[in-house]
Amino acid sequence: MKLLGVLSLAAICQSTAFHFGQMEQKRHAMQLQASSSEGDSRRDFFSKSGAAALSIASSSALGFGVMAPPANAVGGVGKVSDRLKAYGLPPLGPVPNGFTPLLEIWGKGKNRFPLLVLFNHPITWVVTTPSNDVNGEDGTIQAGEYAKGDTATLFVYTEDGHVDNLADAGKPLFEKVLQKAISQKSANIYQNFKVTKVVPQTGPEYEGKDYVICDFKYELLTGAGFEVDRRGVAAITSQGKAVEVLWTASIRERFKKTEPALRDIASSFRCYADGLNFSNELMQYANND
Questions:
Q1: Residue 220 region, left (φ>0) first, then alpha (ψ -120 to 50), else beta?
Q2: Closest by alpha carbon to 151, among 227, 62, 75, 47?
Q3: Which one, of 138, 148, 156, lies nearest residue 247 by Cα?
Q4: How far is the C-alpha of 121 from the C-alpha of 144, rounded, in Å?
Q5: In angstroms, what CA-CA distances link 202 with 67, 178, 209, 262?
Q6: Quick one: which H or E segment has residue 76?
Q7: pTM to 2 decimals?
Q8: Which of 44, 89, 93, 205 has the most neighbouring CB atoms within 10 Å?
């Protein structure tokens, strides 16, 4: 998966020329800043270093490299609405200002079962989707502003299969599923995980489907040895053969600012499995595969 967007050659040239012209001024300013920064406290150092480490963890530890535009993901209100209508599904709900909807299939490969996933995300966030080859599918659907540690990630929990009456399943199930979700990659080591709030969703917009919103928190232990407090909001449902989770999170220091957006993302999550024909959108394999 590769990074969305391509820098134009003109922008690069313009930036290079500007920085060359400002080189001496910046060198002098950096020297002054270096002298001043020697007086920074140990706490400030670890706070800044922890944020940098989280940026690395949000990209490398979660399995991201250089990401490419998701060729088959559908985005934009008009396109998503048309595709939902073609599937015979409920219309797209309200999309907050500054957000855009994303509609994508998880499970196009032979090693998975297909799910149609829908959620809104900030329009500036980078989107990643699963990759497919002759061996099957790998990865998940995710959007985020990774440099700041803000992410929304799909996790499909298959160990218990379908769960009826999800709202009555109890907090232990939600804790188990969310801990699996935040530790998808072995590099993600965490501690002090806790689900702090569970709210079943009963509004008419859910069309009678079981959804639960969970607030949670945990400490991420980065490869650099830092502990980063994370706060999150997750939407959980059980469609088809599994329990599906869209979990969103930010670092604690940003959560007060990002919480409304994370709640908007989680509340917009919808997952569809049964009664849909995905045959024309799944990977096709040779007979000997």
A1: beta
A2: 62
A3: 156
A4: 8
A5: 37, 21, 8, 19
A6: none
A7: 0.75
A8: 89
Secondary element (H or E) of residue 35: helix 23-37
Q: Per-residue b/e over 160-191, b at no fewer than 16 CB within 10 Å?
A: eeebeebeebeeebbbebbeebbbeeeebeee
Residue type, 272: Y
Q: DSSP labels for 150-161?
A: EEEEEEEE-TT-
Neighbours of 193 (CB within 10 A): 15
Which of 9-23, 63-77, 227-241 comes out lowest in average pLDDT? 9-23
Per residue in 31-75, pLDDT tens?
444 444 444 444 443 444 444 445 444 443 333 333 333 545 677
Which H or E run contains 20?
helix 9-21
What span, in angstroms and rounded, lies between the C-alpha atoms of 236 and 250? 18
Residue type, 130: P
Residue with tokens 């995905």, as numbered in its chain:
278
Question: How much is the mean pLDDT over the chain?
Answer: 80
Closest alpha carbon to 183 in 131, 135, 247: 247
Residue 155, Ramachandran bin (φ over 0: left; ψ between -120 and 50: alpha; else beta): beta
Element (H, E) at 94: none
- Residues present in the chain in total: 289
Cα(117)–Cα(143) distance, rounded to whole angstroms? 13
Closest Cα partner for 247 from 158, 172, 177, 173? Answer: 177
Measuring CA to CA, which residue among 157, 154, 122 is closest to residue 139?
154
